[in-house]
Design goal:
This protein is an alpha/beta fold. Helices cover 28% and strands 24% of the residues. The chain has two domains: 161 residues, FAD/NAD(P)-binding domain, CATH 3.50.50; 121 residues, FAD/NAD(P)-binding domain, CATH 3.50.50.
Length: 289
Amino acid sequence: MRRKKLVIIGGGAGGASVAAEAKRRNPALTITIVEQGAYVSVAACPMPYYIGDVIKDQNHLIARTPEEFRKGGIEVLTNTTAVELDTDQRVVKLSSGRGLSYDYLVLATGSKAQRLGISGEDLEGVFTFKTLADAFRMKSYLTSRHCRKAGRNIGDVQMSFPGVVGAQSFRIFNLEVAAAGLGEKEAADSGYEPVSTIIWGSSIAKVMPGAKSLGIKLLADKITGQLLGAQSVGEIGAVNRINALSVALWSGLNIDDIANLDLAYSPFFSGPWDVIHIAAQNLKKQMTI
């Protein structure tokens, strides 16, 4: 019996994930990834920390090399462009002149940075920042400046993509900043009647050493009470709170539910009433006024 063939155009995080999951689900698949750049399976989110010298080794930005893919039975063609697609013959024609036949085809080309066409964008030191090659160019430019100055569907398992709640986190100096869901303008534009509250509490029980101020904002629909969004900031504990509220958003919980969540308690990690509870209770009061 002929082995079925999967061709994936694009070797970024999406394409690489499709390949790995399809191979796990159906080891008999013949899988080829076509990537126009030199790298596949790049960890894009840590790239700013590589540029900022928090991550020293550029190899840490590559989750899986072409050689590692090949050991797992997945062929990777780097520096190769798909130039033509013949859907009648089910063949992808490559820049090398080779043609790849396929049973399944995944287009995972992603996007590219768009220049704005404004004055100064072509000056030295102005970069687009999307690919690993961009990160290398930027790092090289910054390290050299410094030196001068210093001297699963394919695997026959049907799945669907259910969406995201937009959970995100980052650090600003010594502060954790995190958010999930909608902001007030987005909520209003989506037809909700948003109402929000902002409270400041403690990251852990106030009597414990090391307690830090922690801010949290909750946004809900005034009509239904459904949680729509959450934001948090503080030296410690902000990301953990947003992780919990991200699950609440995903599950469609309302403010009543959140005000009574059974959260793990210890004075080392929160007060008897967590800032999440307090914010939800405050918002409930606003909604009943």
